[in-house]
Amino acid sequence: MRKHCFGPIIPLPLHVHEWWLARSWVRYETYHYSGIYRLPFNLVLKVSGDLTANETAALHFVASLYDIHTPILIDHCCTARKTYLLTTWIEGDCVAEVWGQLTATDKARLATQLREQLSHLHEQTITDVGQRPISLGGPIIDPRVPWLADSPRIFTTSRDLFQQLWVGLSCPWNAETLQPRLQSLIERGDVPIVFCHGDILRKNLILPGGLQKWRSGATVVCLIDWEYAGWMPLPWDALKATWMTYGPQDEWF
């Protein structure tokens, strides 16, 4: 999660207390959301303790890009302790819930759609090193580097960040295995900074209209939950998407 806002977003004339008239509905729990509520009129309210409103800023920014399929930002507001985010609800199947039903052809098509959308996202936001600092100069707090949670750091180069991703490379059990493979990647100084989703996991992918409609070619996979989005080194989305896999034998990898 990038601890900054991209800029103020002008709220629409909605009142928070009216949102609570609908019954609550939770698709799943996330890292720092205290509630996700399904509302009438195909809307969803997300209540968060993240006072930076990072997901709000991310959705606002991504809406200016093309060929990125996301929920539409409707409104947001902040109190002293909570952030309230109102977006459209994407009716459909969560990929995590239907993964076992996907054929090899389905999975190949899903991979293609994700690759295309992430390519569009990165190509439209690519920035030379030095022109845009990592996370716009804000400290990084992310479950991929949980040891930074108590003392968030500001990283000025990709190398500094990558060194935190692979700690312990100099340990005896890594010195002759992982370190030779990773050190050259860590040392690279030409890694561009791009805007990243930061949480490409099956639980954050929706097939609009359901599996059968998506399978027919009528819809394209939608990326939800942008709370970890931000300006990061180009490999970040790939690293975050696979950091909990067991290696090449894992089908998601």
From TrEMBL:
Alphabetized, the UniProt keywords read:
Kinase, Transferase
Q: Which SUPFAM superfamilies does the UniProt entry name for this protein? A: Protein kinase-like (PK-like)
Q: Which Pfam families match?
A: APH
A Gene Ontology molecular function term for this protein is: kinase activity
- Where's the Aminoglycoside phosphotransferase domain? 53-246
Q: Which InterPro entries does the record match to this protein?
A: AGP_Transferase, Aminoglycoside_PTrfase, Kinase-like_dom_sf
Q: Does the keyword Transferase apply?
A: yes
Q: Which Gene3D superfamilies match?
A: 3.90.1200.10
User: What is the designated name of this protein?
Assistant: Kinase-like protein
